[in-house]
User: Fold these one by one.
Assistant:
Number 1:
Amino acid sequence: MAEQRVKWVIGNWKMHGRLAENAALLQAVADGAAAMADAIRIGVCVPTPYLAQTQALLSGKSLAWGVQDISTYTHGAYTGEVAAEMACEFGATLAIVGHSERRAYHAESSELVASKARRALQAGLTPIVCIGETLEEREAGTTEAVVGAQLDAVLNLLSVEEAQRIVIAYEPVWAIGTGRSATAEQAQEVHAFLRARLVQKDASLACVALLYGGSVKPENAQVLFGQADIDGGLIGGASLKSEDFLAICEQAKVASHAH
Ligand code: 13P
């Protein structure tokens, strides 16, 4: 594709953080991101109770923020759930949906994830839809069947116009938090498959951002982000250290200039 796609680096803090450490981290990331914001998109997805703090510290800065999950509903008797509109009230623009930890520990189906993606879009949030295979599925040779079905569930529910506004994160479950990243070749292979699947639905979906997630570190970001179909990263552990997160952002900036 001749069209230039912008690189993204999004932090997923997961269930980490406390007020004092968040303040230091957000400040340092915002300071470092300022010089890169023209070249790449940078964001952080924080635990929901810290949205107000994040909004207060990041407003007017060149960095987006968001949540790690949303409800499929706008309001109602859904104890513990958080509506997309609630996140929007705190300036959130991003919502991770379908993270493998939610699929595994909260039994989220691909159909539920698809409806969360649509709900996010309806509220004006950019959904970052996570997909990925387990080690058993990879070893059984079913990676493409698994991620293809996870993507199809979303594409079947959304209109083409809606699908143009999503972000996909390919996160092989076996690479998350294990220190064992997919190789750049393994990741590129799946990303190319996903890009083709998007284009099969509609040619305009060639521009959907495809992020890689799973043990991205300053040391492997350059080679991952240098792949033709990898548009950046969704970063777990390394997003909790400002130097590591900013070093990864720097690699995305370098890769975006190289294309
Ligand atoms: P790690 O970067 O800690 O492997 O986590 C990846 C992830 O799950 C991001 O959503």
Number 2:
Amino acid sequence: MSQVIGRFAPTPSGRMHLGNALSCLIAWLSARSQGGSVILRVEDLDPERSSWAYMRDIEAELHWLGLNWDAGGVDADGHQWCQSRRSEIYTEYFERLREMGLVYPCFCSRAQLHAASAPHRSDGRFIYQGTCRGLSEEEIAKKSKVRLPAWRLQVPDREVSFCDLHYGEYIENLSEECGDFIIRRADGVYAYQLAAALDDGLMGVTEVVRGSDLLSSSPRQIWLHELFGFAPPRYGHIPLLTAADGRRLSKRDGDLDIETLSRRYRPEEVVGMLGHACGLLEEYRPVTAEELIPLFDWGKIPKEDICLPDGFPERLV
Ligand code: GLU
């Protein structure tokens, strides 16, 4: 089997919370348990939301948890692992898609999009109905005087399927269940879908492990891999962590961010909590990330979201 290359791909828009830590832990365990390597990519595409100061904190927190990487990081190699420094590369591939005749400008406002879109089957995402797909050159020139367009990738009427390492077969008809999607925003910032798929391809990533909120992004990313001529990586999605009241953890939940936890607990305690919460440890006990490697098994991880017990973390330690 060829060498496994996994990745961490954090967005440095805040401190790392326990849910981000769980994704990184499982991505790391999956790669390491196969003797693979791990890269650290900085998903700081949106300059208004991201900062390198947060990224340095995230790196320190990964180190604290015992999760190391073999290449990448904010300060490595002239910042080439930072998406904010890769726009020339994205432009080159964006132009390739344009030459294929698959990209068109979209002038729809947010209100028009809501009015003219059909809601997605399960995740509430809106399906773009192709309003701007057939605009003539004259219409484009006229609309461009009033508004800068976003750029959409035209999707085929075709099913994209893949076998998720955790959730099994996943199928999506791109035109019926997704619609033409934005690959470059009106302000020139490239969209997550384009940047993530392209970087996974260019960085040789063979295995993508991330939260199940991104499961439905995978068909779009696989389609981009196909267009660029890359072999798509394998995808494995993991359940999300929720607070005791069912609310999804977010970067605003300061009580569950790693920095706050690190003031009260040792790394082995936090890794032990995560290992127990995701089923790798039957009983809670402090462990290092390294010690979890031989215990890693997708079959032990639940499929449904993981609800942290009331009073967490005190109850577990
Ligand atoms: N940057 C995303 C995040 O921090 C992860 C994207 C991915 O893994 O593809 O949630």
